[in-house]
């Protein structure tokens, strides 16, 4: 099922992708497994976008598919008794200059499903909005997402904004997205980076003492 779901999403076959996800969940497949397949598909869509093979319409359609599949997975988790106790708070958003929310939405879903209270700032979020929201929400963890390489500078600027505001020592900052790696973590000044939503959850749990 997983390969078929990945192929359907990457192939922009919306009806087939949603139906495959629905069938897998109804058959008892772990919702996290389904979302992992979605993450792999999103990574490939992002690669094709960067390569000029896909464009904004494909990104928008992928986002629509992810929203539908996420709702199905959330419903299944709720029925199975998802964690009620909240481990901590995570502030998340896609940085300024990047309007893509597909990967971010998967991470937010996984964090929520694993017991975190998540505040999602959306896309194209300027540094000052991250800082303002951190003051209001008081998270232990801040997550910044990017699908495009042009978002690296805004990531660095956002972390610098936390430093100027005197909040840097109060939060752990993780970054993620298809083009992110250890080198980008060092460049931006983040505490850590994650390859996928599973790593993001593990990092958040480690930082708030949930493991």
Summarize the structure.
With 211 residues, the chain is α/β, with parallel strands linked by helices.
CATH superfamily of the largest domain: Cobalamin-binding domain
> pLDDT under 50 segments (min length 5)?
none
* Domain module count: 2
Q: Give the CATH topology of the largest domain.
A: Rossmann fold
Percent of residues in helices comes to 55-70%
Mean pLDDT: 90
Q: What's the β-strand tally? A: 5
Radius of gyration: 17 Å
CATH architecture of the largest domain: 3-Layer(aba) Sandwich
Q: What would you call the shape?
A: globular
Compute the separation of the termini in Å. Answer: 31 Å
* Major sheet size, sense and barrel closure: 5 strands, parallel
- Summing up helix and strand content along with how strands pair, one would put the structural category as alpha/beta
Given the structure, what is the number of helices?
9
Oligomer type = single chain
Trace the largest sheet across and list its strands.
Answer: 2-1-3-4-5
Q: List SSEs in N-to-C order.
A: HHHHEHEHEHEHEH
How much β-strand is present in the residues?
5-15%
**CATH class identity of the largest domain:** Alpha Beta
